[in-house]
Amino acid sequence: KLHSDLDKGVGTVKYTLSGDGAGTVFTIDETTGDIHAIRSLDREEKPFYTLRAQAVDVDTKKPLEPESEFIIKVQDINDNEPKFLDGPYVASVPEMSPVGAYVLQVKATDADDPTYGNSARVVYSILQGQPYFSIDPKTGVIRTALPNMDREVKEQYQVLIQAKDMGGQLGGLAGTTTVNITLTDVNDNPPRFPKSIFHLKVPETSHVGSAIGRIRAVDPDFGKNAEIEYNIVPGDGGNLFDITTDEYTQEGVIKLKKPLDFETKKAYTFKVEASNLHLDHRFHSVGPFKDTATVKINVLDMDEPPVFSKPMYTMEVYEDTPVGTIIGAVTAQDLDAGSSSVRYFIDWKNDLDSYFTIDATEGTIATNELLDRESTAQYNFSIIASKVSNPLLTSKVNVIINVLDVNEFPPEISVPYETSVCENAKPGQVIQTITAADKDFSPAGQRFSFKLSSEASNNPNFTVHDYRNNTAGIETRRNGYSRRQQELYFLPIVIEDSSYPVQSSTNTLTIRVCRCDSDGTIQSCNVEAIFLPVGLSTGALIAILLCIVILLVIVVLYVALRRQKKKDTLMTSKEDIRDNVIHYDDEGGGEEDTQAFDIGALRNPKVIEDNKIRRDIKPDTLRFPRHRPPAEDNTDIRDFINQRLQENDVDPSAPPYDSLATYAYEGNGSVAESLSSIDSLTTEADQDYDYLSDWGPRFKILADMFGEEESYNPDKVT
Question: Within this chain, do residues 513 and 420 fall inside the same structural domain, yes or no?
Fold first, then answer.
């Protein structure tokens, strides 16, 4: 309630209200100054409001007093329950934990005013989950309430937690949440075999390293606490078998370390121990974390292949041994109860295997071809043995045959030497050290000796000094050498080996005389240098040679150009046919003048190439095709042509100068062939000229001349 001292109660004062919530949350009676709340208030939404009030004169509307400010505070009541903002919760605790082991802390939040009353004071309690767990009422810490909780008995627990305000008093508001607690595993259980004896049956043909059986120990623990390690206890048969752990199934896999043989031993018995890999020292008092079981293995008899007496055979034979010589034998046996005979044969893989044969019954190996150690020093092949009673059962063994060397090649100088001696050499000077090589092979190593051949034993120029270590030195025997007298010396050297039979060869060493300086450094070995005049340097010699080469090139180019010009002139005068055509218009001396132009180019090439006698055939009496008689003024021309034609046909020595015969040739492959009657084999009477009409406009005149019904037009004759 607001009241001004100037208010006399006669209605002259008016009260106004402004600020937070004025008109929306709070209102004021303008006459009395009473303030009322017009809607519900929530402290959690707004804990206080700041308002301003003023007294105003009703008539003048002027303030009677200065504006005053006041605060309305909302008093809290317990209208909010506690809430678990992080719930539901998930927690874990190791199994077998002691009482009071920490599990988890929960927390509930109350929106009420913690400074006013007990509205925000929360107390925690367990509604579900006893007697396994407990909770601190004030802090909300959850702990174990029972000792030795076993995961293998129960793994999951669900605990219901309640938070109640007003200090847990009656009438307080409450909220709940769920806590899911899991017991984590610890290694508190040893592995145990479900039975004390395991029986296994294994064929004797099982391969080494193969799995022959599995056994399993049970461990109720989980994860790494359930990992088991298996070991074979030393004893009977333990050295023939091995055991490993399957990491997925935790089973013990028994494997074979050595081959089994039913005929040697039929059964094996040994013990297997199973133990945990990761132990927990807190549970050592429970007892040893391992268990033992007995494994009995019975070997099953199987039909086995033959067994060779050795895993590999090595033999030796000299090269060039006669074909059919026995060099060794292999042996295989059937070790089964009913022993069977064995047959042998070579496992053919390449052509080298054909150098040997094997006796199918005895197993003896003999040569099948002559052997050459220098070609192949070692042969490697396989022998297969099979049982007669069951040929499908086979075994294989590797055979190595080393070819021994027979001394058949003489030693030779290892490399071609380029030996030189200085003109100013002194007696006893070593000018070359030589070595030898031998194609034969000697396990102890070859020993070579060097000497001069018998015909050169008294050589006054050079000698050979054998160093006894497969090398020799070439030494000079005179004081100085002259290239002018002799440039090359040939020294025959005999080289012998130490094998049996002794082989030797004569090798010729070429020694060149060279010019050297005072220190023995070679300056020149060319023979041309001997005849050069004193004082002529190498540069001058090169300049002279270059001049000679340049002169030779100039001469060759000049000759080539002259030949090219001559060839072009001949081609222009003799080979250009068009030039003959151009000069054909010149008048000559008639048909007898053969010098005006070269008519050979216009003749039939076949006639020229064959170079035979005249191919003209004397025509029979000419008979023209049926046509109308020509005009009277053309009779003389026709008679002249016929007369000249008959004279030439009768004369066997007259050349074919008739230009008609020459121009009638159209070349090889012509569809029309020759149009001349001179080269025809038939008479004109036998010809059918009707086909000329099909040849087109170019042959229209000929078609009109030789047609049966066509008239003769003299204007068309050319």
Answer: yes
Do both 69 and 169 map to the same domain?
no
pTM, two decimal places = 0.41
Determine the Cα–Cα distance for residues 270 and 233; give it in Å rounded to an integer: 7
What does each C-alpha distance from 546 to 4, 535, 691 come to in angstroms? 140, 19, 77
E strands, 58-149, in order: 68-73, 89-94, 102-105, 123-128, 133-135, 141-144
Paired tokens of 12: 């002259």
Q: How far apart are the first and last CA of the chain?
A: 154
Q: What is the mean pLDDT of residues 160-184?
A: 87
What does each C-alpha distance from 85 to 123, 174, 176, 329, 462 come to in angstroms? 16, 14, 11, 92, 115
Average pLDDT, the chain: 80
How would you list the strands of the sheet with 312-318, edge to edge?
A: 312-318, 394-404, 378-387, 342-347
Is 672 contained in some domain? Answer: no
Return the closest-CA partner of residue 434 out of 465, 468, 473. Answer: 473
In whole angstroms, give the CA distance from residue 674 to residue 665: 6
Q: Judge contact between 624 and 712, C-beta under 8 A.
A: no
Residues 52 and 142 in one domain: no
Q: How confident is the model at residue 632 (pLDDT cuts 50, 70, 90)?
A: very low
State whether 241 and 220 are in the same domain: yes
Tokens of 267: 């059964």
Q: Are residues 296 and 311 in the same domain?
A: no
Q: How far is CA 614 from CA 80, 154, 598, 618, in A?
A: 147, 135, 19, 11
Decide which of 25, 43, 73 is a domain's last residue. Answer: 73
How far is 75 from 541, CA to CA, in rounded Å?
Answer: 130
Residue keyed to tokens 């005053």: 68
Calpha distance 252→231 (Å, rounded): 9
Q: And the tokens for 516?
A: 């050297």
Do 445 and 477 lie in one domain? The reply is yes
Whether 618 is in a domain gets the answer no
Q: Which two tokens stand for residue 91?
A: 């927690």
Counting Cα atoms < 13 Å in the Cβ hemisphere of 424 gives 9
How far, in Å, CA of 231 to CA of 271, rounded? 9
DSSP states of 488-557: EEEEEEEEE-SSSS--EEEEEEEEEEEEE-TT--EEE--GGGGGSPTT--HHHHHHHHHHHHHHHHHHHH
State the total domains in the chain.
Answer: 5
Percent of the chain whose pLDDT exceeds 90: 27
Confirm if 295 and 269 have CB atoms less than 8 A apart: yes
CATH number (domain holding residue 135): 2.60.40.60
Q: Which residues form the domain of 422? A: 412-524
Model pLDDT for residues 240-254, shown as the tens digit of each residue: 899 999 989 989 999
570 within some domain: no
CB–CB of 499/442 below 8 Å?
yes
How far is it, in rounded angstroms, from Cα 520 to Cα 511?
Answer: 16
Q: Which residue do the tokens 């000299």 mark?
A: 318
Q: Tell me the C-alpha distance between 251 and 253, whole Å.
A: 6
Task: Return d(Cα 29, Cα 26) in angstroms, integer.
Answer: 10
Core vs surface per residue 178-197: b (16+ CB within 10 A) or e: ebebebebbbbbbbebeeee
Closest to 494 in 3D by CA, of 483, 485, 502? 502
What is the per-residue pLDDT across 498-544, written as a single tens digit (0 to 9) for each? Answer: 876 788 899 999 999 998 988 888 888 865 444 444 445 677 788 89
Structure tokens belonging to residue 494: 């005999």
Partners of 135 in the β-ladder = 142
